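tool_call: predict_structure(chain=1)
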Amino acid sequence: MFKGILITKDEAGYQARLQEIDDAVLPEGDVSVRVAWSTLNYKDGLAITGKAPVVRRFPMVPGIDLAGSVIESSSSVWKPGDQVVLNGWGVGETHCGGLAERARVRGEWLVSLPQRFTPRQAMAIGTAGYTAMLCVLALEQHGVKPEDGEILVTGANGGVGSVAIALLATLGYRTVASTGRVAEAEHLRALGATAVIDRSELSTPGKPIGKERWAGVVDTVGSHTLANACATTRYRGAVAACGLAGGMDFPATVAPFILRGVTLYGIDSVMAPLAVRQEAWQRLARDLDPAKLESMTREIGLDEALAVAGELLAGKVRGRVVVDVNR
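tool_result:
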């Protein structure tokens, strides 16, 4: 038996509870991990509250991230004692995830914990920071350079946005942070933002094509925000889209793409190949300042996760939330 959050759906309805869980609940996998730290992401908030059909199998341990040490392995890659990180692959949705003291997963889903990071720091990065790095890599691979102009980061106070700003600043880019919480402007500037704008400038219907401004964009919002970001991206610029906090719709025209040659990159962190994951974590170890990471991180115990999940969906949480699953 081990402690964790378990989501059930039966005659009593949809429930998420902190409880003792039998090892038999865990699905098949060739590596067992003693989880040290997990996180709370937007998707975890949806899973715990049941506000969206994130969970596809019951009972389910939520948590799309985990960091810890291998305790049992029949994989040729991993041995007991190895320090590992897992992001995505459907954990917390179709396969029991990280908000528990133990997990059983497939070895090919794991990445070695970079030596520069502790397990707690790796979870302060989590899927959000790893996704931010994928966005930055997409802009780099497109050829966007610091001297090309400003980079827009939407949803800037969220986990992806916060890490993206910190990474881009380290790499020498000038970033403009778009947020619904402009009172947090000083925090965003401390992370490296050169300017802060209210999200209302982008979140309402706009023109099919507008004045060129952005050399690149990291968008976590979708909907009108993404459409307006594309419409104001410079000639042959790039937009990396990784989120839908503002909606799944994309009310845009083809004008930015055929008149300015703008490229829209879809960023998938869940099923990204191992080589891409390894590159992202290597770059995070090189380019992310641990001090900035700590400034955007809030720590909670497993017993607090149920309440904080609601705060997260209400937009009351800044940056990253790490979960000590052993308290």
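agent: Residues 124 and 173 are 23 Å apart (CA to CA). Proceeding to next step.
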